[in-house]
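quick one, 667 residues, struct below
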Amino acid sequence: MTQPQNGTSSTLPIGTADRHSAAWDGVARLEPMSSSARLATVVLLSLALLALASGGAFGTSARTEPPGGDASSQAAVIDEGNACVVSVDAGKSVARLWNEAALDAIRRSAPAPTIHARNLFHLSAAMWDAWAAYDPLADGLFVDEKYTRIDPENARDKAVSYAAYRVLSHRYQDAVGGVESLHQFDELMAALCYPTVRTSTRGTSAAALGNRIARRIIDSTLDDGSLESEGYASDSYTPVNEPLVVQQPGTVMADPNRWQPLVLTADGDSEEPVPAQRFLSPQWGYVEGFALPEALTPGMPFDPGTPPYLHDPATDAEYKAEAVEVVRYSSMLDPRDGVAIDISPASFGNAPLSTNSWTGYRYNPATGEPYAPVLVPRGDYGRAIAEFWADGPHSETPPGHWNTLANAVVDHPAFEARIGGKGPVVDPLEWDVKLYLALNGAMHDAAVAAWGVKAHYDYVRPISMIRYMGGLGQSSDPDLPSYHPDGLPLSEGEVELVTAASSAPGERHAHLAEHVGEIAVRAWTGNPGDTVDTLAGVGWIRAVEWVPYQLSTFVTPSFAGYVSGHSTFSRAAAEVLTAMTGTPFFPGGLAAWTVPAGSFLFEAGPSLDVPLQWATYYDAADQAGISRLYGGIHVKADDLRGRHVGSLCGLDAWATAQRYFEGRTGR
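---
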């Protein structure tokens, strides 16, 4: 199979307004079977199962394989007596098709990046082991078997598909949207003409090999530390802080350095509370990884050091400054402020690791021409990246987002499938199984590493920091009213004390006249009731009422802030993509994603089309990281140190993947 050629543009066409629909045009959204169709299927399957002999299998019985050969080619397809015709996109490898099916399942499921990263990794390992079984050099990860076939391409497609189908069906059968996801997996197998009734794990057929690989992965990872058999639920974490009720001003904290769960409402207008957040995956630092080193601190493979702490003489000022910085980013979210910025690679990008010291690029290395400036309202840009990289409910989450980007790279007309950017062009299946093993090995390791840090340091989120310190007062001047050593530091135009003068009619705090002596921040004013036509904008609000730029039903993820998962995942992915392609630059030297006017989900906007652009994978990763400050989800320490941890994960995953590619694991 060959990769599709999408025109001649030198820009990587990653997507448009809704990446979930635009990126997946042509992938059927499958509906559950009707009751009559389901009954007919049950009857057919029951008849087929009568012919199955007992033995190792998925389910209760298995088909007896003829001795030798690839018996799967001899299996009749239940299709009303007609020969089955393969009906999938011939421009995509079977690994790509299964990867896209997994991403659809993730979008339907609950937004749990740890679990989805693990699933993507195990799917990728299953497909890799199936491919490697027919390669004389490569080492398998979970199953290392070797076979020769006259037609290894067909055998690989089949083994990969059975392995992928079994792993995904097992992992998503009880997930949110599981019925739809399992139906999609069944439909893909039918489109590939691979009968799902072939459940045997015994024999040398490609189907049995795929089933055997899946069974090994499913069984051997049940006790990998994820608590899969208990629904991934852990009782190992108890918050030290009582929940913060978002719809009520202020907060009380026993320890302002520690994470605080939130209490939201069922929707933005409802007064009915939902249960307080529970820390997602506090056990994840103990999960078995792909290329992680042995943890020196139990449950934390990489230790980025302590974050800034309130009351710590060495970092107290940094803690406060980083909270004010988040307020500053929040104040930049109004497109009516008249500020325009250049968001092209001429200005954005090319920063050293774990910094925001962007110098941009003079020229596009693919064209030799300067990057054209792209001027947009600053308020539209900040909101655009906050929403584009949000990866919350109904998204593929950060690990899946980077799979989407990696697939788009392959679809670019300038892309060449050379492993490491050198050597011969490999076929699409070889590229995809190697890409997914390295990329999703890195995504899984990034989840383990980041959540190990999150659980260990249990660090506070900005909404708690800002509300807590703002409720105490100001810490800048003991001679001014409302002084408290743990209060927010004053910053003109950003964090101010409401006074009789500042709240007089016509003054900037006039609407806060009943709150003289309190602390006001200039920030996004909060969720509008009408997110389609209403722009909340930026203004002076009470610090105790500050909220991040997020949906009112989400607000902040249900786990600690330090380090940022987005930053860790994104830098890990950038390292793998750079190593895999042999260059940090996207094909054509430029990747672009246009966010159309009026397409935002959180409030009205943007006011015009916002073309997000990146020259390199690192630039995209950095933007993902800083987007969390615009969105009010993280402080700078969460982001920058997460990038460093992600870099370690990505580099180690690539080095380990190469050993499997080249048969150097010593197996």
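The first helix runs from residue 19 to 22.
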